[in-house]
């Protein structure tokens, strides 16, 4: 297990690369989602195919998640973007990177791209959106429910989840309740600084949005079309928010197509 | 390599013993040190391992067998439900198959 100490936080990092002897074509950084998620959602889905296609694949657990450190405080979006910045710095990854983010991970990736447009080669956002006031309000509502219904009345809530969604989901929910109880995450994220429309439109790299057709995230497609110079979306019918895990092959295929078209153009000297 | 570990052998019994040792290392973290581990044991229901624990297991497999066994690729080829139902026995078979394939190659 690789731990990278940024000076502020210990982050669990996993890396996969192309077969021996091959120089990676580009670096892709995969950022996972909130509460029940970890880098495992990439490790066992799209990462092996990304590496086999010639990419240097970097995955890490967000603070508080997976095998990374869990400080009591420091869970705003800006803390997460700082962590990503510090991680790339420690790994000496200086060139433009392709960023992939699932759900909240996409919001982090977008925040990084808005801070460093010149260091972002492309952005793939799975079931995700930039940090806007509407985003903060929505996440605030979800986190409020986790705090009040799950963390404060855990036995009853877990019994309900077990009965309706099975033991596996119940175990994930217990983990989420623990994270919210032990940290300030539930208060910090809704209080995060959000982006203005000008800050969003600073992102000029190609952006791909991938959505489940049955997810309410499809509503954010028009916002991105208005503000982003190079935006394209793919909607996968019959899927909801967990489209990455449910349809990994299709999602990964769309992302690889984007990355290779961009890095191919770069290699040929075309912008 | 750990000198106390037996030599790698591409047969079911030896690989099951290897995996049981790795899984006990993982479970110790949760204070569970007497779990029974056999071919029909499931990672999810019986051992209550989370997917991030399987990432750690992937690392332990690589330490033991090198690049010959690619656990991430093995799981990436499965449906989500198959991963939930994954048994130790299925992984044993995959490891034995991988070891034999590289011996033959």
UniProtKB/TrEMBL annotation, chain B:
It comes from Streptomyces fuscichromogenes. It comes from the Bacteria. Residues 13-91 form the Carrier domain. This is Acyl carrier protein. InterPro entries: ACP-like_sf, PP-bd_ACP.
